[in-house]
Specification:
- The chain is an alpha+beta fold.
- It has one domain.
- Helices cover 27% and strands 21% of the residues.
- The protein has two helices and three strands, in the order ββαβα.
- The chain has a three-stranded antiparallel β-sheet with strand order 1-2-3, with no helix packed on it.
Length: 77
């Protein structure tokens, strides 16, 4: 699926563990789902990706759901 010039992939995490997702330092490794966005052309720049990551976090996170951005720009999200 194309999302703003990115290939969107959503896959179950076979290593998911709710206990570790709640307590481990690298909690994101144990989340139930893995959501990946990969730019499909060179016109998609980092500022575009940061804005998209912020919007996705707002859409996904809630009282019972946490999300983490893992990217070269994660400190700017």
């Amino acid at each position: 699926m194309d999302v703003r010039g990115n290939l969107l992939e959503i896959n179950p995490n076979e290593g998911a563990d709710p206990r570790l997702a709640a307590t481990d330092e690298d909690d994101y490794l144990y989340f139930r789902w893995r959501v990946e966005l990969t730019p499909m052309d060179r016109t998609v720049d980092e500022d575009h990706q940061i804005a998209l990551a912020r919007e996705l976090l707002r859409a996904i996170e809630g009282p019972q759901v946490r999300a983490t951005v893992c990217a070269a720009f994660e400190d700017r999200v």
